[in-house]
Amino acid sequence: MAEYSFPPLKNDLLLRAARGETVERPPIWVMRQAGRYLPEYHEAKGGRDFFECCRSPEIASTLTLQPIERFGGLIDAAIIFSDILVIPQAMGMTVEMVDKKGPHFPDPLQTPQDKQYIELMERHVDVATELDYVYNAITLTRKRLDGRVPLFGFTGAPWTLLCYMVEGGGTKLFKQVKTWIYKYPEETKALLQKISELCVEYLALQVKAGAQIVQVFDSWAGELSPSSFKKFSQPYLAYIAKHLPLRLNELGLEQVPMVVFPKGAWYALDACADMGYQVIGMDWLHDPAEAVKIIGDRPVVLQGNADPGVLYGSHESITEVVAEMVKSFGWAERKKGWIVNLGHGITPFVNPDDLKFFFQEIHRLTKTD
User: Which reaction(s) does its UniProt entry say it catalyses (predicted)?
Assistant: First the structure.
């Protein structure tokens, strides 16, 4: 993979905020900002399968840029259009995206005695080759962005990827993965470690391709009890935070801010603040004022955390939620330590104009006279 020179960054607000600097206003982006709520997404996607779009650098880049073009000047970052489940695919597992159902693994992991588990543990996974399409999409997008905003790369967290690999898709019970952690804890940890190492390399190669900040999505962290989180999520999130900077050094690359998003694990905020990530993403179950107190004087930035459901509401409700966030994060006094986001990804059927109003209200209520 060749290294490229890119146009200079014209809006570095998010990167400055992620480094903990005092900034003129809080930067804004939202998870799943490129996606199916946008009419232009369906036009560009056409009849293609979801993963087909991910594997086409041209289409992935086009989809990544759609919210930047639609909400020009209102948002401060792009995030590459891809999926967390490309890692299990790279490991040799089949993953399909079923319409109106979501991701599906036709042959999930059953037990550690399972032939597939043994093969998975023994297989050498070359993420440079297997996920080359992601890096090509990042490089193409950086060029097309022309410095308008920085570009996020991302990965799923080891625990969340394990959940999908053994459950076979989304679930409410988490029966299979709970069986794994309570019946096969050592084999579970061995697989989590392997996934962690792949995540480090995958993120490093995204940075090499042009990503300027990275996020680790632990979407199912909240399914773990506090004690189980310490065993099956925290060590692997910490591994990524420690080893990604080392790998970037080995590759001769500049360091980038790292974001961790342990959705639902409100009890782990204090632990996450000591992991080595510069930014912690929070879901809408957190009270921002309490979170600010928990972080204290540690050099950690908070990201979030509006309830995505507010976008189904009235403009008055959106204004109320934004005003409450601005107050709770202590923006007027602090002028740092906050990146605006939703508490999770944009949900289906949101009207893009209501999201635009959310962005406009953040600008209006945080501008300095």
Answer: uroporphyrinogen I + 4 H(+) = coproporphyrinogen I + 4 CO2; uroporphyrinogen III + 4 H(+) = coproporphyrinogen III + 4 CO2
- For residues 289 and 292, what is the distance between their CA atoms, to the nearest angstrom? 5
Determine how many CB atoms are found less than 10 A away from the CB of residue 34: 26
Global model pTM greater than 0.70: yes
pLDDT tens, position by position, 215-249? 999 999 999 999 999 999 999 999 999 999 999 99
Say yes or no to pLDDT of 1 above 60.
Answer: no
The answer to whether residues 321 and 307 touch, using CB atoms and an 8 Å cutoff, is yes
Q: 305-326 pLDDT, tens per residue?
A: 999 999 999 999 999 999 999 9
Cis preceding linkage at 136, omega within 30: no
**C-alpha torsion sign, points 177, 185, 273, 17:** negative
Q: How many CB atoms lie under 10 A from the CB of residue 175?
A: 11
**Which tens digits make up the pLDDT trace of 150-163?**
999 999 999 999 99
Q: What is the DSSP string of 249-286?
A: HHTT-----EEEEETT-GGGHHHHTTTT-SEEE--TTS
To the nearest 5 percent, what fractions of the chain are helix, strand and coil?
A: 50, 10, 40
Contact 281, 260 (CB under 8 A): yes
Provide the 10 A C-beta neighbour count for residue 197: 17
- Which of the four pLDDT bands, split at 50, 70 and 90, describes residue 100? confident
Q: In what order do the strands lie in the sheet with 258-262?
A: 78-79, 151-156, 213-218, 258-262, 279-281, 301-306, 338-342
Separation CA 247–CA 135 (nearest Å):
17
HSE (CB half, 13 Å, CA atoms) of 141? 37
pLDDT of residue 369: 61
Residue type, 254: E
DSSP H or E stretch at residue 292: helix 288-295
